[in-house]
Write a structure and sequence with these properties.
two-stranded antiparallel ribbon, globular, single chain, three-stranded antiparallel sheet, 15 helices, 446 residues, mainly alpha
Length: 446
């Protein structure tokens, strides 16, 4: 493989006012020394493991998560590229493209038992990153055609009457029953002892599988009715797909296709504003299209709207107000602190790397640099303080204490993957070595 040239953008101004954290270099060194422990290579199907053509990264060097995962890989790739491993990031991306060509979608992970669901779509963002590094138009041509197939899956299998998308699955009855058992165990209850009808139990099981497709398993955003909702983050990402596709089409000289994708992105933006924006609260929420109302849970997913560039500038300030309910001493809580019926792990008091990544980058993208820097410093402090006492990085942290005293639905593994990727990116952002892309004003007004 030809050597990939990494071009780093440098933003002046941040480095001079960067709060110094003396423990950052030790974490960066730990990450550099341990990337290799997460690399796997299996080219043939073996038992439940799906063969992939290139070496790939898994989330952790430990016993859990020994396969490739979909949305984890985006955040991992961002770190790999910035830490000097662009070839590995490209291999990861090619593996996910291979999965689309073979299965028509990216599975949740590279196991056959994940065939009933995908995960929050990030593949167009990975392709965009690799193309910017290589400039390989033939590779982009092939990747773009494959990405359109993946987009087609979301538009065929996960579309609602609103024109927005939702999570779901093609789960068998056996898998639904398995998730009812899993949900009971992870939420600390017995769902079979609630007096639910068989129909209600089946729907609940389907909703658990859909939450697993979201990656936020489990959370209070959907009142355990995930398939009834149009999530903010999913539709923000699909907006980003449409904008990326416009850019890819333009790069490939397909002007009419470019215009079609811009129109799709503008329509999705209009639908997000129509269904997800509460004009009284002046805030965005997931939309319950079955009951025609918005969720009453504010989540960190709202910042995905900024990261994707899905809202006009006049709405950005409203989203920033969510910090009043989601920002804590060590970053952004997955969901606001409210009394919930179960101790969900994708909620307060947990802070997760992906949410902090797109919160920081989204705030910066709309010009809220002070807020972006503050969140980055807080979350990185959680990582460094915990690293000093445990010698490891972790899947999630306590947003109040910065420790690993978190709400768990399973034994929390030590993590490299998205924690390392997010740490590298936020460190480089604070150093003035990384900035989010400018808003795509060449395609639509802001």
């Amino acid at each position: 493989m030809k050597k990939i040239l990494i071009v780093m953008s440098v933003a002046a101004g941040l480095a001079s006012c960067r709060p110094q954290n003396p423990d950052v270099p030790a974490v960066r060194e730990f990450i550099r020394n341990n990337w290799h422990t997460t690399v796997q290579h299996c080219t043939t199907d073996t038992a439940t493991l799906i063969g992939l053509p290139h070496p790939y990264t898994v989330p952790t060097a430990g016993a859990m998560f020994r396969e490739m995962y979909y949305w984890d890989t985006f955040f991992t790739n961002e770190g790999l590229v910035r830490d000097g491993h662009p070839e590995l990031a490209k291999g990861n991306t090619d593996n996910l493209l291979h999965m689309v060509r073979r299965f028509g979608k990216v599975y949740n992970g590279s196991r056959t038992y994940y065939e009933a669901r995908s995960q929050t779509p990030y593949l167009s963002m990975m392709v965009d990153r690799i193309y910017r590094l290589t400039g390989d138009k033939q590779w982009l041509t092939d990747a773009y055609e494959t990405l359109k197939d993946e987009y087609g899956f979301w538009m065929r299998e996960r579309l609602t009457p609103t024109g927005l998308n939702r999570y779901g699955s093609s789960a068998s009855d056996a898998l639904v029953d398995e998730f009812l058992v899993t949900g009971s165990k992870r939420l600390g209850t017995d769902l079979f002892d609630k007096g639910y009808t068989p129909e209600r139990l089946h729907k609940l099981g389907l909703d658990f599988v859909a939450e697993a497709e979201s990656g936020w398993d489990f959370n209070p955003r959907y009142d355990r009715r995930c398939t009834d909702f149009c999530p903010l983050d999913l539709n923000a990402n699909l907006f980003m797909y449409e904008v990326n596709f416009a850019r890819f089409a333009q790069e490939l000289g397909r002007t009419e296709e470019m215009r079609e994708w811009i129109a799709k992105a503008e329509l999705r933006r209009a639908r997000i504003l129509e269904y997800c924006y509460d004009p009284e609260a002046k805030q965005f929420y997931d939309y319950d299209y079955v009951n025609g109302r918005r969720s009453d849970v504010l989540s960190g997913a709202v910042f995905a709207l900024l990261y994707s560039g899905a809202v006009p500038r006049e709405y950005a300030g409203h989203i920033v107000q969510a910090l009043l309910r989601l920002e804590f001493p060590y970053g952004i809580a997955a969901c606001e602190d409210k009394p919930y019926d179960y101790p969900y792990q994708w909620s307060y008091p947990n802070t997760w790397p992906p949410v902090c990544f797109y919160t920081v980058m989204g705030l910066a993208r709309y010009g809220y640099g002070e807020e972006a820097e503050r969140i980055a410093v807080k979350w990185m402090k959680a990582v460094t303080e915990s690293f000093k006492t445990t010698g490891n990085l972790w899947e999630k942290y306590n947003v109040e204490t910065g420790t690993t005293d978190v709400s768990n639905e399973y034994e929390m593994p030590a993590m490299l993957g998205w924690t390392a990727g997010t740490f590298i990116c936020l460190d480089d952002y604070l150093a003035g070595e990384m900035q989010p892309d400018p808003l795509p004003t060449e395609y639509m007004s802001y």
